[in-house]
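Attaching the record inline, Q. Sequence:
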Amino acid sequence: MARMLCWFTATLLLLWTTAIGTVRGGNVTYDGRSLIIDGQHKILFSGSIHYPRSTPDMWSSLISKAKAGGIDVIQTYVFWNLHEPQQGQFYFSGRADLVRFVKEIQAQGLYACLRIGPFIESEWTYGGLPFWLHDIPGIVFRSDNEPFKYHMERFVSRIVNMMKSEKLYASQGGPIILSQVENEYKMVEAAFHEKGPSYVRWAAAMAVNLQTGVPWVMCKQDDAPDPVINSCNGMRCGETFAGPNSLNKPSIWTEDWTSFYQAYGEETYMRSAQDIAFHVALFIAKTGSYVNYYMYHGGTNFGRTASAFTITSYYDQAPLDEYGLVRQPKWGHLKELHAAIKSCSKLLLDGAYKTFSLGPLQQAYVFQGNSGQCAAFLVNNDGKQEVEVLFQSNSYKLPQKSISILPDCKTVTFNTAIVNAQYTTRSMTPNQKFNSVGKWEEYKEPIPEFDKTSLRSKRLLEHMSTTKDSSDYLWYTFRFQQNLPNAESVLNAQSRGHVLHAYVNGVHAGSGHGSHQNTGFSLQTAVHLKNGTNNVALLSATVGLPDSGAYLERKVAGLHRLRIQNKDFTTYKWGYQVGLLGERLQIYMKNRSNIVKWNMLGTHQPLMWYKTLFDAPAGNDPVALNLGSMGKGEAWVNGQSIGRYWVSFHTSQGRPSQTWYNIPRAFLKPTGNLLVLLEEESGNPLGITVDTVSVTKVCGYASESHLSAIQLSCPPNRNISTIIFASFGTPSGNCEGYATGNCHSSSSKVNVEKACKGKGSCSIPQSNQFFGGDPCPGIPKVLLVDAQCT
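Structure, as predicted:
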């Protein structure tokens, strides 16, 4: 993933010892407790930020925000098909500038983890493998297969040597402390029979022999050969991880999923800050020492980089959202968790460890120092009710499904279920509309006919093997004679995925598509045939290539059977066209746009190109394109693809999986930006808007039991303009939905306005004195404030 992703990359200098005890490798070693950096055991919090899923001008800010959130390590995959799109042709510029990204991590004083793979999955097209590998004779991906091993070792060695040449490994004074080879291979290993285990042994040995001076990991690989560390991926590694496969290896969590990747037709997966914090705290309580958040910033699947059916936005619910904005309370709650754990990290790493029961579903994890110091994690696994437990002669209330951290075994400094961080609301504000016919021009993509095709076959060709990932699109064309008067007939097509548009005599006859769970589908539609020659053209489209599973090189897509009326055309003389004419001519580029003749906007038809110009919104807020009025296609800004869109594929709740599409500021110039869209269906460009993205609301909640004041803070250059809601008393609900309760101080809103209005940030005490008296003596009170930022 991303789904089943895994990770970690780094390597080993000199020879690693496989004996029980510390394993040495330059300045980074490890033992059964943790990684050891420059002789010091470390508890490390890591965040995944993938360099090609953002732009270089964003990297500094993203890394800085991660650091401010208590992150120690930035983890990234390395994307083989980005760096070697054609065999022997390498690319390391722009968003692919891996060295620049790692140096930015170093400049901000953080460590790096490099997950070289080179199979990465990650919801990235073809799992990161370049498609040209598919055509290497005799190749079997990810197995003990000489052609695959040759190319894998060649690429991994190139990346390692590039890092060495820039002195970026910790053993050279650089930031890289960890590397990963392969990725969640245990999920498919059995499918390769005896070629699976031998491949694992080969991959581990190949990596270690590159002598990087830092450890390597294999995620979800419980048989990772020494000295490679086996690690956990998932949402609940404190509960599911069986542990390291050797006593001298530390417990590492390489992917703690902060949300989940999303496919077209599926709803957003929402994971709460409380749930993430609970499972991180549990993992640390059980002597885990390294946790990576996957993702800390997800970013954008620009261009055609998303895997099959994956939406363009990636892990938008991460602590830093797609646009790089801080998502609260997730960011703040995890920051407080990191601080609480770091405050007692020496005890956690050096102390004597014991655990004992506090109740049927309650447990204490205690770390005892030599001089009487003590740290404890008190766990309540009861998901239904708060409980009170007795620990070291003191009573503690534990909210349902929560963990309290006591750095001194006395005082609770953090509870995973109690959120002190403010909540924020992100809004999209329309900046420019395109609702005038005069603002648009259109170009109709021509429907090819059999006579004009040069690629021919007497059978249906497999889609991916034919396009070789040069385009999403493959035209299947043929012609046949109809010797009856004009008549209605039925076209029945079967496709292995992902999308099919049928045209008969140049007229759109129908469309069909599969889904993430079932890529194959059938299309049955009525067609009008004429007497004489009929031209049939079927446009097959992939929505990204598959990214997982055994024998990836055998995966198939595209049309595999066709009948019209009772005649089977599966074995027939077919003509093929790879890609669309507009693609081949690159009419989305400003200097090539006028190669074709554009017309004024007319009726909305399938398979149309649209173009317009717009100015960049003023200010520095992120920019997004609202494509809610469109169907399916791809969008370009100044020649750069901002990704595929598929607004017409609704979820079970009847809404698009994604409506807004990120336009990085780096893609824009002040005026005259060219927007080009390829629309496969019949979307209406008049409804498109260019929007700005910002945090517009902040909300805080405080009760007598856990917080003495609310801290509200608007983003930079914004102030609190309106107090939407304020209640000191017994308001119902929380920041996600609220109402005034039976007890309410009448001065709530007035006093909060005095304290906050016109300010960028403010503090509101949860006290009777601040609100001019006790509105309901003897009743525990809550303070809830929701404010507008302008």
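The first helix runs from residue 56 to 68. DSSP finds twelve helices and 44 strands in the chain.

More tomorrow.
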